[in-house]
Amino acid sequence: MYDVAIVGAGPAGMAAALTLGRTHRSVLLLDAGEGRNAPAEAVHNFLTRDGTPPARLRELGREDLSAYPTVEFRRGLVTGVEGAFRLTVDGGGEVRARRLLLATGLADELPGPRGVERLWGRSAFHCPYCHGYECTGRSVAVLGSTPARVRLALQLSRFAGDVALCTGGEPLDPAARAKLEAHGVTVRCEAIARVEAPGDVVFDSGPALARDALFVVNVPRQRSDLAARLGCAMFADGCVEVDEFARTSVPGVYAAGDMARRATVPMPLAAVIAAAASGTVAGAVADQDLLDDDFDLARS
Ligand SMILES: Cc1cc2nc3c(=O)[nH]c(=O)nc-3n(C[C@H](O)[C@H](O)[C@H](O)COP(=O)(O)OP(=O)(O)OC[C@H]3O[C@@H](n4cnc5c(N)ncnc54)[C@H](O)[C@@H]3O)c2cc1C
What we know:
FAD/NAD(P)-binding domain; binds flavin-adenine dinucleotide; 18 strands
């Protein structure tokens, strides 16, 4: 019986484990493998670790955790959950804990066009804060036609060398087109056949557009169905609902990182440093809730 079982050893789960380990809680940290940013060459926008490869960042996290004897790391996929605190790992072994902390992250569906999957994380991106700076002075294409895509194209036009918005056959609002063109953004409305390395856009008709990088549409989904199976309240966008203290709607179950958000924010703050920060909060709150049990303390 562990004090806390943590599912997911990305930045959120590892930060929670660090907080719990430092208060001498027995922790089992379970992880199935790669995290969301695994295809990327480097983690950016993380103070003190800017430019570190994602796998190296995880190694560094596990090195930190190895200093705490009450934290146990185990490689394995959690395949089942029963009554919140009984987990099945890899379809076999059972784990029991007094509290459960989910940090299972998101996985990205890439609706297209053909070829995006091969470039994802390397020269096809979704986040200007993660990879925008690396496009400084370079040619980029933003795929899509929604107001958010127009906004992204304008954002990148501030520092990229040459920006094109490719709507993939969708019409574009004339006012948006005028604004884009006034800021030097090219608009291409032809249907897209495929994209090719590094970021070239090949249309059904007309000349291809040579690009260094692409900003594509991604559809994030929960990587694991554990929260759903536990009956945790979720938003329409699939994020697990947590309160300010990382508590889900299921007593004793916490969620941190990309997978969860509060009602007051419209989307998860999907960044490595934000995931780690939310894991720190979740770990401390789980410890506080255990203290209530340990010492039969009245909740203030
Ligand atoms: C291509 C790309 C590049 C990015 N680049 C950056 C960047 O440069 N800077 C930045 O700040 N952010 C970046 N991000 C965002 C960043 O990846 C996430 O914000 C961060 O990884 C979230 O951390 P997390 O701990 O919540 O989840 P993750 O890092 O995704 O970790 C979740 C972990 O849970 C494990 N897991 C899931 N289900 C189970 C289960 N059932 N049993 C056991 N283990 C399980 C997974 O294997 C995984 O290891 C990028 C995202 C993408 C898609």
